[in-house]
């Protein structure tokens, strides 16, 4: 996780608990994530890493505990304020979560088209820049179903970075990537 | 205690039903609020209107024509027993405008578009595409559901209109061309018996059915991950889609009765 250099933790989880059905996934999780650092959460599969991530993104409500992002308690703020915080996030999902009815280009352009008032020419330039960065410049017209797992991950990463977010969340960033391409996420 | 188990199961089912109803009610309310909130996306509405409407026209023409034809045939057979073949036009028109037009159109749209909408949203939920939208600060209700709601409410009445017209022509074909009922009597009977209330009832029903179809299909897909019977994977999507079609069809018939009872 990368964040801007400040002294205050970018994300604070306190006493977080979550149960799905009868399965307790998180039990008293306390975690401070400092700004400007790369933080890695490691654990066996099914132990709740993705669930922690979803709490930080405000996608899942905890049974108890608190989630503070940039000093704001996610459970107590309005949807508008939550969206304002989310504008500072870039997320690479475990399975890339690309929109399968859109081309690679449109997938990466979506946040710019929906969340900014940038002119189309500027959007095109910005998307091309990110696709070039991910070695995907010849795949912009393809649909996600026509891509390999590694290429999907790189498209997901290009989309996560296109708004130049302050914080980038990676859920299993190198799974399915060959060693050469997994270095892209480290960069 | 073993003896209390059936009661516990019954209570569990009741709670689950209440929870699901509440969830769907809140979903509908949130979507209706989102209808008036910007950003507005006319192109997305046109795309959805094309998907729900234009691509359903062929099936509506086909079912409308055969419904009108069978009404003409059965109506003639029944009315001729009383020497009232002249009332065939009004029987066909009233049956279509009040009941069969809105109901059969809605059932066709459920089968063709409602199931597809539910599967589309369900797959988006399963593959984290809806989560991705939320993380990009894009409201999934506004971005995904609102264009479908507007298109459904606009398009189902138009499809019903097409169904009614083609159905009346089908009835005319059988009654007048094949069974030699007088053409003038056919249309005069229709003209004198159809009132504005009959047309109004058809319009109200088709508007409500359009809303019901999109509401149930989108809500079932959106909450796929919360389905008690397990909503994940291809099987979860197929089960939820089947549920959406069944619930929509039943809801259409129930609301058909309720609207008729209120308006008559």
Topology summary:
The complex is a heterodimer of chains A (187) and B (264).
Chain A: E1 9-20, E2 23-34, H1 49-56, E3 64-69, E4 72-73, H2 79-86, E5 89-92, H3 104-115, H4 120-133, H5 149-161, E6 167-170, H6 179-186
Parallel strand pairs in A: 5-6
Antiparallel strand pairs in A: 1-2, 1-3, 3-4
Chain B: H1 5-35, H2 42-52, H3 57-81, H4 88-126, H5 129-135, H6 140-178, H7 183-193, H8 196-222, H9 233-263
Structural summary, described in words:
The complex is a heterodimer of chains A (187) and B (264). By secondary structure, chain A is of the alpha+beta class. Chain A contains six helices and six strands. Chain A has helices spanning 49-56, 79-86, 104-115, 120-133, 149-161, 179-186, and strands at residues 9-20, 23-34, 64-69, 72-73, 89-92, 167-170. In chain A, the strands form two sheets. Chain A has a four-stranded antiparallel sheet with strand order 2-1-3-4, covered by helices on one side. A two-stranded parallel ribbon of chain A has the order 5-6. In chain A, a hairpin with a 2-residue loop joins β1 (9-20) and β2 (23-34). In chain A, α4 (120-133) crosses α5. The longest helix of chain A has 14 residues, at 120-133. The two termini of chain A are 12 Å apart. Chain B is built from nine helices and no strands. In chain B, 84% of the residues lie in helices and 0% in strands. Chain B is elongated and about 65 Å long. Chain B starts with a helix and ends with a helix. With 264 residues, chain B is mainly α. Chain B has helices at residues 5-35, 42-52, 57-81, 88-126, 129-135, 140-178, 183-193, 196-222, 233-263. Chains A and B meet through α2 and α3 of A and α5 of B.
Largest interface, C-beta within 8 A:
A-B, 23 and 15 residues
Largest sheet of chain A: 4 strands, antiparallel
Strand segment tally of chain B: 0
Percentage of residues in strands of chain A: 15-25%
Described by the principal axes of the CA atoms, the overall outline of chain A is globular
Structural class of chain B: mainly alpha
Number of strands of chain A: 6
**Percent helix range of chain B:** over 70%
Tell me, briefly, the overall form of chain B.
Answer: elongated
- Spatial strand sequence of the major β-sheet of chain A: 2-1-3-4
Poorly predicted tracts of residues of chain A = 1-6
Overall SS class of chain A: alpha+beta
Strand content of chain B: under 5%
**Tally of individual helices of chain A:** 6
């Amino acid at each position: 996780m990368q964040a801007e250099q400040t002294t205050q933790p970018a994300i604070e989880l306190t006493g977080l608990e979550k149960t799905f059905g009868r399965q307790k996934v998180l039990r008293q999780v306390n975690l401070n994530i400092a700004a400007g650092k790369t933080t890695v959460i490691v654990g066996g599969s099914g132990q709740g890493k993705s669930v922690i991530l979803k709490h930080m993104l405000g996608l899942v409500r905890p049974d108890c505990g608190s989630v503070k992002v940039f000093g704001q308690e996610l459970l107590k703020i309005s949807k508008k304020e939550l969206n304002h915080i989310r504008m500072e996030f870039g997320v690479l999902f475990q399975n890339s979560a690309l929109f399968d009815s859109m081309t690679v280009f449109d997938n990466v352009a979506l946040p710019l088209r929906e969340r900014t008032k940038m002119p189309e020419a500027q959007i095109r330039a910005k998307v091309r820049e990110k696709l070039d960065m991910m070695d995907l410049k010849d795949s912009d017209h393809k649909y996600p179903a026509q891509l390999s797992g590694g290429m999907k991950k790189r498209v997901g990463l290009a989309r996560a970075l296109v708004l130049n977010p302050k914080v980038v969340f990676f859920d299993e960033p190198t799974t399915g990537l060959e060693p050469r391409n997994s270095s892209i996420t480290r960069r | 205690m073993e003896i209390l188990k059936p009661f516990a199961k019954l209570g569990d089912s009741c709670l689950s039903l209440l929870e699901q109803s509440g969830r769907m009610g809140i979903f509908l309310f949130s979507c209706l609020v989102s209808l008036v909130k910007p950003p507005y996306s006319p192109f997305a509405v046109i795309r959805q209107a094309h998907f729900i409407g234009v691509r359903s026209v062929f099936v509506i023409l086909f079912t409308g024509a055969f419904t009108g034809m069978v009404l003409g045939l059965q109506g003639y057979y029944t009315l001729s027993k009383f020497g009232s073949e002249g009332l065939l036009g009004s029987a066909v028109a009233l049956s279509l405008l009040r009941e069969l037009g809105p109901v059969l159109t809605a059932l066709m749209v459920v089968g063709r578009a409602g199931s597809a909408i539910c599967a589309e949203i369900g797959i988006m939920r399963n593959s984290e595409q809806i989560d991705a939208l939320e993380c990009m600060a894009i409201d999934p209700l506004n971005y995904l559901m609102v264009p479908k709601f507007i298109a459904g409410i606009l398009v189902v009445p138009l499809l019903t209109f097409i169904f009614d017209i083609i159905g009346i022509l089908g009835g005319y074909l059988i009654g007048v061309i094949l069974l030699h009922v007088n053409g003038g009597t056919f249309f005069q009977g229709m003209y004198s018996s159809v009132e504005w209330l009959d047309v109004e009832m058809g319009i109200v029903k088709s508007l409500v059915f359009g809303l019901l179809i999109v509401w149930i299909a989108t809500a079932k897909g959106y909450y796929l991950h919360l389905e008690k019977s397990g909503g994940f994977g291809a099987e979860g999507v197929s089960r939820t889609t089947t549920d959406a079609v069944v619930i929509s069809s039943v809801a259409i018939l129930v609301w058909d009765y309720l609207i008729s009872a209120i308006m008559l």
